[in-house]
Amino acid sequence: MGWLGLLAAAALALAAAGAEGQAIDASAWQDLKPVMPGAAVKRTNPRWPLSDQRNAGGWVRDHAFWDEFDGKELDITRWANTNPTWKGRQPGWFSPRNVEVRDGLLCLTARAEEPPAALKAEGYHTWTTAAVQSLERTLYGYYEVRAKPMRSGASSSFWFYYGEPKEWTEIDVFEIGGKAPGFERKQHITLHVMRSPTVKDHISVGSAYIHGADLADDFHVYGLEWDPKELRFYFDGALVRRGPNTHWHQPLTINFDSETMPEWFGLPKSDDLPSTFQIDYLRVWKKRS
Hints:
single chain; 289 residues; mainly beta; Jelly Rolls; 17-stranded mixed β-sheet
């Protein structure tokens, strides 16, 4: 389906969702309980999503967003090395110098260091973190990353969002506190609607998938399958969460970042820093037209 077709489908889906007003029916969402690592899928064909190795979904590669991070630096025709509209969650500041591409990996680092003096008056201090955002927006498809969270109390996250006056929605594929006490094995999967034509106040639905080992121990494959009817989340090729797409029909930016989250993960310990969130690849597919 072409871009205009996707927008038309989104408009129809949004109109249908409008009948539900502000409600998100949390009971309509399913948390699957695959036994890990036994449920992990063995990759036999790198051309297709890990969860669909025979390509039953009819996927085709989306060259606009696919990135193996094999170069010597970030591709600035695709990515910003910070978040252009946000300086970071205080007290951690998104420092462009904390974003690197090396050894075939996108590396986002959190450090115990002071940001520039001008930012201290705004509430930033003690820590710098990192963010990468796509320059273009995307809508529907299969998004797969192979990543290893940093081992610190700063977050490691892969998410989608866009905010504009009439609509602001968000899809969090994972938010992980790799060494935040009590969060080391939790993959937080959350969807937000900050505002839309039918939603005036912030609403969300989410859960934490709890794994059998610390997520910062190794690389894993995280996936999102996003279409007009449903959203499905995968871990190492196994389906872990699914639910109806009642509100998420807005083209969104793709984001990787690390934040300080004092009210959730607590602040990172200086002894654990610097620490790096590593992304091996982002692979994106769309449905065959």
